[in-house]
Amino acid sequence: MHRLFYVEELVRQIAFDAYERPLGSASLLALACSCKILEGPVMDVLWQRQKLLDIILRTLPADCWTLTDGVYRLIKIPTTKEWKRFKTYTGRVAELHVGDPPGCQEVSSATISFLVAQSTVDPLWPGLTSLRLYEPRWEMLVSALAFLSRKIKAFTLVLPQDTSILLHPILSIASARCHEVQELVLDTVVEGPHSIDMVGGLISACKDTLRTLEIRSPFETEYLPIIANLPRLKILRLEKAGSFSCDIPSDSFPVLEEFTFSGFQERRIEIFLKLLGTAGLKVAKMYSHVTIDFEKSIAALSRFSASLEDLEITAITSLDLVRVPAFRLPFTNLRNVRLRCLHREVALLGSCTLRLSDKAVVDLGAAMPNLTHLTLGNPICPGLQCTTFLALVGLSKTCRELETLEIKIDFRTMVAPSLSLSETKEVETPVETQGHGCKLRKLVVGASILPAPSEESGWIVAAGLGKIFPSLTEVEGRGNFGRGKWGSVDRNLRMFRQVLRTVGIQGTHSRFDS
């Protein structure tokens, strides 16, 4: 018995590795059918990880089904023995995607009706814990009982546009059966009282277990009283709020750790932040279609200065970072900061601008010394103001834990290869912080201004980067300045490291050294 258990565990490990390879599902299925001892452990792995409905249905005997014009159809009813064998597989399925591209084929209405009929007495997916329905047809929604297991922990529903009539069957069944949902994602839920009642009913049905809620449709104020007091809600993602006019306590969302607002007006975000309780908010992500007043946004988050770890602010038109007294706030635990302007069609929205002074960059690093990832602007946005060499030097001194930096740089400000750090007096950093302690490994630059292309200019850029970031292993160009444009920088960075080792300055090993 002990030996058999050891063999099964070994087979499971092999199956896990094989599943990740090309044609892994087909290979595992053939392996399972080749030997009775292998069937159990291999199918355990395969169906706990397989997600697509049509691929699961293909495990029925080949003479029972056909795949024509991208549609799976049953052409023969499986025998009792064949169906029993098939159910030993479906009982192990943990996650199911229906109509979810890429790679998922359509299943015919007749096939779905057959599955529903077979599920009325004995559930077809008893172990299902995650279900994603992507733009399902009417037959699929009214047949939801065949898929909605009482054990479901994650439920995603993506509806086609203008299909409010489809909401009622699926949400009514889900409200009655799914009381243990921990993650709920609703997309393209139409506006109106009827939709609010149905969505609110589902949220209320799983209020004691819900931990993640994402609504990708226009958010209605009427949802707030429902979600404000969810006792375990930790992650909230909302889009397009109208207003926060309803009367709810100011200490709502007692355990919220992460929120994402997309398409909200800045005033709405500010009001929402005042509603949060004293919970330790760790992640804040804000996306706006208008200009964001950065100082007001940071001030609104100041209550969570001791707990916030990840901050992302994105505006489509402009984001002003020239004056940054708000950086004086003690965001001591921040690890990731992304401040960006999106580049859209100029004819529609005008040019995008992110005004960024060198002093603002250095102040940011000084106020948040534990940063590991920093994004300043969309690297390919033409309206983004370039930073200079002085800003990079300042970051290398004040932000020692930084590992990834995305920024737009004017490389014409690079000084000669001799690089004297004493030439950076304009940057207000303590003398004792000067040195080469920054851990930066990846630098992403896009649409940056390069000196006139020559071997000498490539050497200057490589020397500058190599000296202030001795751990740098990757320089990535984006937009009009792709990898090809940075070939000389890569080569010269390798040469520069050889020079450093020659004179006794040890740089870390990088892929450029190979």
UniProtKB/TrEMBL annotation:
InterPro entries: LRR_dom_sf. It comes from Thelephora terrestris. This is F-box domain-containing protein. The lineage of its organism: Eukaryota, Fungi, Dikarya, Basidiomycota, Agaricomycotina.
